[in-house]
Request: fold
Amino acid sequence: MNSEISLGEDFATSLLAGAAEHPPEEPLAFYNDEGDCIEFLFSSESYYGERVDDLLTVYQGRDSGQIIGALIKGVKRFVRHFTQTAPGFLIEIQDHKVRLGCLVTAGMWRVGDELIVKKYKLIRDKAEEMGVEVEMPALTC
Amino acid sequence: MAETASGATYEKTKERRGYAAIPAIDPHDGGEWDVLISPQLLQQTQRRGMGRTKELADTVRWAVLHPTALFRGIRDIENEIDDDDWLCYVATPPTAYDYKTGDVRDGWSGQVLLVCVNDERVLFNWMWVDCDPENPKWPIDHKVRFREKVF
Reply:
């Protein structure tokens, strides 16, 4: 692998050109349909993933040493299972959008481990503080 | 046309309108096949800045051609079958990118890069994670993350 990207390749060239047009956005939250996952980031610093459980991976900031985001996995499956016992949750999905804080709260309520709950709560509180909503066309109700 | 161990046939090359195709190691024979990247992921990556974008253009493309391990199946409590064919390429790239500055740097020590591909061969995410202390080419918690090791 070269330390410099081969800019002669169309894929790399167009990809880099698009990124150069604007600086990194904060916060950022989006649903990835191909992976059925939501990514939520509230810092643009480098990070690494730390798996919490089957639903949540947190992103640890390399500069700050703090949690700076999260990946929520298997979203459709989780909502389907959660609404079997808590059908009222569907009211939180309006116009194909869901408040990320509600989704994270639902995940947190499954957890008994105090340390894990704290991580969920941090993500939930950040999402609520920033008023983050995620558009999810697949979750119509 | 290629063939899996069970006799099912598949195409090495893959195309989908609007998607980019990049070569990756084929889990069936160790050769190469195409994996796809959606226009949505390309756009989301660009919104995250030059460092993340360079990582996709360079590090991730290298990683799927030079994996140190390949796992299949994403574990979860319910172990639902529809996730069983998702792949995770694991690599130790020699270089990485700072997401904030976009600067190239040495690969992150003590960590491996995971690149996730769904059962339609669409690459949907990648991230660095701590390596297994007993095997630094594998991710930590690999026994609970994945259903099986392909190689």
Remarks:
- Residues 36 and 74 of chain A are 5 Å apart (CA to CA).
- Strands of chain A lie at 28-32, 37-41, 47-51, 56-61, 67-73, 93-94, 97-99, 133-135.
- Chain A is about 35% helix and 25% strand.
- Chain A touches chain B through 44 residues (CB under 8 Å).
